[in-house]
Design brief:
Blueprint (H helix, E strand, L loop, with lengths): L2 H7 L1 H21 L12 E7 L5 H16 L5 E9 L2 E8 L5 H14 L12 E4 L6 E8 L5 H17 L4 E8 L3 E7 L1 H7 L3 H11 L1 E10 L2 E9 L4 H5 L2 E3 L5 E3 L4 E7 L7 E2 L2 E2 L1 E7 L5 H18 L4 E7 L1 H30 L2 H15 L2 H7 L6 H29 L5 H20 L1
Antiparallel strand pairs: 1-3, 1-4, 2-3, 5-15, 5-16, 6-15, 7-12, 8-9, 10-11, 13-14
Helix pairs in contact: 1-2, 2-12, 9-10, 10-11, 10-13, 11-13, 13-14
Length: 438
């Protein structure tokens, strides 16, 4: 059956089908996410192993090589890249593209577990994760306040801002950059320890046993059943100084008799600089499948509300990948509009027929918009790749429309009726146009 001939004979069903497809395409377009790049699942796995205090040479011989030898037996392996530094080893295991990601993750976990018994006993359990390209930060801010020092700002970011932003839809992670971490130092006096016959290992062991909070079962109290908890934790450095430490000979001493306790900050291991000055900041990453534009708008609105509630807090946007995604999206749409307008203009300049020009102007959007139905159904997003594909396909669509309309106009100028010209012109080149499009 010739589709073109059937549509010409039955114009109302054909028009209604295209109207319904166009409406569904517009709804699908509004439901699709706007992203900078599509979410790609690359079969790449990372293995992180941590052994605090170990040297790079020890990690290479005792950890990295054993894991490499085990992972090397997996089918479909392409490359293994290992990075070893003080106390940590990271392996990036890259598989061939045809390898299913979940299968690569499961097989890598199994390979690491096979050699777990051969690794050092004090090695922390290796962490095996897939590489997630969507976890890259899309927004970064610095925070300052005259009422808070670096420690208070760091805790404000870790506690308040992180909890506030993670409640927003589409936000995948909020990570603090720079700042400091609170830490209680216990500086033991070796002379006092020697005089009392105690060692630093004993003090550390007793502190580990004392600082405990655990469930203690249940008890009947006043005719009702109540849970029981064992509370042995301290809330301040002063309470920690008053803790009684039992020694091996049965004596008990207060911790402040053999140590100096100070509530201070940990030694910084990283720093964040803005214009050469140290700052406290945080990065916001989107969740997989979320839109950078929607996440950026929600985060900016929530932070604007925070600064209105807390005038002492000053937020400065350090960088963002939201605006480039929005600009590329708007720029691509503008190019599509310009291309469609130019195509219609070309038809008018060469054919000088308003009817043919109107047909081309209507055919372009009614043929392109229904494509969003399939894109939405297949889980695509609006990004640079899909917009580039649409731009390229629009070119073929314009060629098809111009060829069909020009052939119909040629038959009209032979003196044929519009119905006869359309039927014969479509029969002549319909199969060629469909084959070219496919």
């Amino acid at each position: 059956m010739n589709v073109s001939a059937w549509s010409i004979r039955n114009p109302i069903p054909a028009v209604m089908v295209f109207v319904l497809l166009t409406i569904a395409g517009l709804f699908s377009f509004s439901a699709m996410k706007v992203q900078n790049f599509p979410d790609i699942d690359l079969p790449t796995i990372t293995v992180s192993a941590s052994l605090p205090g170990a040297s790079p040479s020890q990690l290479e011989n005792d950890v990295a090589r054993k894991i490499e030898n085990s992972v090397a037996t997996i089918q479909g392996l392409k490359h293994i890249t290992t990075k070893v530094q003080d106390g940590a080893a990271t392996l990036i295991v890259e598989f061939r593209l045809e390898k299913p990601l979940q299968e690569a993750l499961d097989e890598t976990r199994s390979a690491v577990q096979r050699v777990r018994a051969d690794l050092p006993a004090d090695l922390r359990d290796p962490v095996v994760n897939k590489l997630d390209l969507a976890a890259q930060p899309v927004l970064a801010y610095t925070i300052a306040s005259p009422r808070m020092d670096d420690e208070a700002l760091s805790w404000f970011v870790d506690n308040d801002i992180q909890r506030m932003l993670l409640a927003l839809p589409g936000v995948g992670a909020v990570n603090r950059v720079g700042g400091v971490t609170r830490q209680v130092h216990i500086d033991l006096d070796p002379l006092k320890l020697q005089a009392l016959g105690a060692t630093a290992a004993e003090i550390s062991q007793q502190l580990r046993l004392i600082q405990v909070e655990s469930a203690g079962g249940r008890t009947d109290l006043g005719g009702s059943e109540q849970p029981v908890r064992t509370l042995a934790t301290v809330e301040s450095a002063d309470q920690l100084a008053d803790i009684q430490i039992p020694l091996r000979d049965g004596r008990r001493i207060r911790l402040d008799q053999v140590a100096r306790i100070s509530d201070t900050i940990a030694q910084p291991r990283s720093a964040a600089l803005l214009d050469g000055k140290p700052v406290v900041g945080f990065e916001v990453a989107r969740a997989r499948g979320a839109s950078e534009v929607e996440v950026g708008a929600a985060v900016r609105a929530r932070l604007a509300q925070l600064t209105a509630e807390r005038p002492d807090i000053k937020l400065n946007e350090a960088f963002n990948f939201v605006d480039p995604a929005q600009e590329e999206y708007e720029g691509s749409l503008h190019l599509l509009y310009e291309g469609a307008a130019l195509a219609v203009l070309v038809v008018w300049l060469f054919l000088r027929d308003w009817r043919a020009t109107f047909v081309s102007a209507v055919a372009l959007p009614m043929s392109a918009i229904p494509a969003f139905i399939g894109m939405h159904y297949l889980g695509f997003s609006i990004n640079v790749v899909t917009l580039l594909a649409l731009s390229l396909v629009i070119g073929i669509l314009v060629d098809d429309a111009i060829v069909e309309v020009e052939n119909i106009v040629r038959h009209l100028r032979m003196g044929k009726t519009p119905y006869q010209a359309a039927m014969e012109a479509a029969d002549e080149i319909g199969l060629a146009v469909i084959a070219t499009t496919f």
